[in-house]
Amino acid sequence: MSQLPPPKSPNNSAVETRHVVMPDHANHYGTAFGGAIMSWIDLIAVMAAQRHCGREAVTASIDRINFISPIQIGDYVHLKAMVNYVGKTSMEVGVQVNKENPYTGESLRATTAYLSFVALDGNKKPTPVPELILETPTEIRRYEEGKLRIETAKELARKIKDSRM
Ligand SMILES: CC(C)(COP(=O)(O)OP(=O)(O)OC[C@H]1O[C@@H](n2cnc3c(N)ncnc32)[C@H](O)[C@@H]1OP(=O)(O)O)[C@@H](O)C(=O)NCCC(=O)NCCS
């Protein structure tokens, strides 16, 4: 039986990366296509989740994605992903996406997203994840907000199910 890795802080598994928006990432308005941004978000978020749990993790849901401002062709897309909250086998990852001027470095929030991942064992079954060590007020706030989002989503799913009975 495999051993559960020790608790980790969100910083231990955080991932940061940049992409350049090329013409084939653009929509017909000449700005970055939401689907391209979503793909980069899913990719970086799963890396943070897998670094936290130390094993395979799959996307269970994309819980929220806010497109705040459009990104132009040629801009850098700066993504940061961090585990906000963990349940028993699931992890909520928050992703901040900034658009960055490649010449001046000027940076502006373009998108935010929250995704849920589930850790899988060798039989592809959900398996427990390490606890989160919360070290800063920001990490505590993100944890509490993540918990609220997950509990609210479960409550909504329950209400929808009940309304169908
Ligand atoms: C995600 C998946 C592993 C969950 O399996 P399951 O047997 O339904 O899981 P369970 O009901 O035992 O729940 C396990 C955990 O997943 C969470 N979970 C299940 N479905 C979820 C969903 N849609 N959104 C968020 N969390 C979810 C549960 O809340 C639970 O969390 P907890 O242990 O922290 O309390 C399964 O649905 C799956 O394999 N989905 C396909 C994943 C995939 O192909 N993703 C795209 C490519 S990576």
Structure, described:
This protein has helices spanning 10-13, 34-53, 137-163, and strands at 15-20, 57-67, 76-86, 90-100, 107-119. The N and C termini lie far apart (41 Å). It has a five-stranded antiparallel sheet. 31% of the residues lie in helices and 32% in strands. The radius of gyration is 17 Å and the shape is globular. With 165 residues, the protein is an alpha+beta fold. Residues 58-61, 87-90, 116, 118, 126 line the site of coenzyme A (COA). One of its GO terms (biological process) is acyl-CoA metabolic process. This is Acyl-CoA thioesterase. Keywords: Hydrolase. Residues 11-123 form the HotDog ACOT-type domain.
Low-confidence segments, given as residue ranges, are none
The assigned CATH architecture is: Roll
Q: What ligands are attached or bound here?
A: coenzyme A
In the CATH hierarchy, the third-tier topology is known as Thiol Ester Dehydrase, Chain A
Q: Termini separation (Å)?
A: 41 Å
Question: What's the Cα radius of gyration?
Answer: 17 Å
Number of helices: 3
The overall average pLDDT, rounded, is 96
Output the CATH homologous superfamily.
Answer: Hotdog Thioesterase
Number of separate structural domains: 1
The CATH first-level class comes to Alpha Beta
Helix content range of the residues, please? 25-40%
